[in-house]
Amino acid sequence: MKLEVEVVSREIVQPSSPTPEQLRSYQLSFLDQLMPSVYNPWVMFFPGICDTEANIIKTSDQLKQSISKTLPYFYPLAGRITSDEMFVDCNDEGIPFLEARVNCSLSDVIENPVPSELNKLLPFDLYGDVGEFPMGIQSNIFECGGIGIGLCITHKIVDALSFFTVVNMWAAISRGDEKLVSPQFGSASLFPPRNISGTIIPKPKEKLMNKRFVFSASKIEEIRGKYTSLKNQTRPTRIEALSSFIWSRFAAATEVRPRPDSFCFITHMVNLRTRINPPLPEYSIGNFCSNAITIPSIDENGEICHNLVTQMRDSIQEFDKEFVKKLQDGYNRIDYIKEITTGYREIIYFSFTSLCRFPIYETDFGWGRPIWAGSAARNMKNLVVFMDTVDGKGIEAWVCLKEEDMAKFESDEEILASIAPKSFKD
């Protein structure tokens, strides 16, 4: 369904208390430097909160006052990233807060979400000028009185786990929770910045399409069983199995073949907090993540070799404390990717990131948890983002491919047999 969204107000919300002078300049870490200047998006849906004009005003005031009280805990988000992307000027200038009206009921959106339409519920273009505002919020009121809270935070300052630390702290303050755990900053002391340029994501030349595929718990178990039954395979995790399945069906649908002038690799984003010495708490804020790289084996018939799960697992297990120490000393994974792909005419890559088991449904602003939450359409080719379904049993896969590749992928018989009916929309 095409959404008509009208922004009715814009304002800047500033922190409720000033940032101390000694914290006014926040240095980005080496891992922050490597992250692209893009926003991470999220939209949370709550029913029946804004059923009257009085409740709309009350809810808006509650959200603005609580985010104002939250920003002092996450002071870089209310500042501005410097032009050299080395520091954040923590000047307390604040974040945009937009209010909008949507021309339909909340149920029209969440019954069959269309990723590209969800972008209309966000305060920014995901690939706009991130340097101006590190964070922004858009409160979307539906005709039925439901609300969709759209949020963007720059990847230059926070990774996915940090993102939800911000969201859930905001919700806790909104509902009056006094048992708050202060976030921990200081990633630059662990991963000192280097004299490098950041990751630039070029505007894709091809038209991209985003679709959402839902795998039920029973289908996931079938897929895990398939890979468990293969010779010398231990039982894969849900993410290992789905990653292998999606890559193999993509390769089959688009006829990926081993050729002398082509090179394939797969990446998985890995959380480094538990892998550093000593381990860091979950509320450590910054980009504490890096890419595990798998070079999949493919035979001349295009068949994915049976050890793909093992290959993926081994690449992730490479991230031990010694490997993380290399990253702390300036080992650049981007340079490594450039090195292994040099000389090839065609580079085929596939990127996976997982939000499964993240606290995405623990967000309670004082009126209960969201009835659904999701991402949006991204402009990054061959990207898959996994997240839990509302019941925590299934998995949603948000997939971004070239338009022609998506047409082949979504028509693949094994994909169609494995997803929930009507589970994908562009």
From TrEMBL:
InterPro entries attached to this UniProt entry: CAT-like_dom_sf
PANTHER family per UniProt: F21J9.9, VINORINE SYNTHASE-LIKE
GO molecular function (one): acyltransferase activity
Organism: Corchorus olitorius
Family of the protein in this entry: Belongs to the plant acyltransferase family.
The protein, known as: Transferase
Keywords: Acyltransferase, Transferase
Top-level taxonomic group: Eukaryota
Coiled-coil ranges per UniProt: none
